[in-house]
Amino acid sequence: MVSDIKQLTAVPVAVGFGVHSPEQAATISKSADGVIVGSAIVKIIAQEGVHAEQQLTDYVHTMKNALAEPSELI
Questions:
Q1: Sign of torsion, CA 26 27 31 32?
Q2: Which of 13, 56, 20 is nearest to 37 (CA)?
Q3: Confidence at residue 72, expressed as pLDDT on a 0 to 100 scale
Q4: DSSP codes joined into one string, the chain
Q5: Per-residue pLDDT at 69
Q6: C-beta atoms surrounding 74 within 10 Å
Q7: pLDDT, tens only, 6-43
Q8: 28 partner at 20 to 30 Å CA-CA among 36, 40, 53, 66?
Q9: CB–CB of 19/37 below 8 Å?
């Protein structure tokens, strides 16, 4: 579906529904221009509250690394 959409527009295409793991992000980044992770971050905040900083930092770094080096995860 991403390929079909990209053929119809020059606007960057991002995918975000259900993305929560580094493996999913790496796979999606092969065809999409961006990966959106929202609910997984909200879930960490809901679980950890005001003490979520380290968990959020770790999660975001893991996701960023998956996008920078997708071949290592797949």
A1: negative
A2: 20
A3: 47
A4: -HHHHHHH-SS--EE-TT--SHHHHHHHHTTSSEE---HHHHHHHHHHGGG-HHHHHHHHHHHHHHHH-GGGT-
A5: 60
A6: 9
A7: 999 999 999 988 899 999 999 999 999 999 998 999 99
A8: 53
A9: yes
Write out the two tokens for 28.
């999606």
Rounded Cα–Cα distance for residues 2 and 17 (Å): 13
Residues 67 and 56 sit within 8 Å (Cβ to Cβ): no
Q: How many whole angstroms separate alpha carbon 45 and alpha carbon 47?
A: 5
Residue with tokens 């998956």: 66
Give which of 19, 63, 22 is closest to 37, Cα–Cα. 19
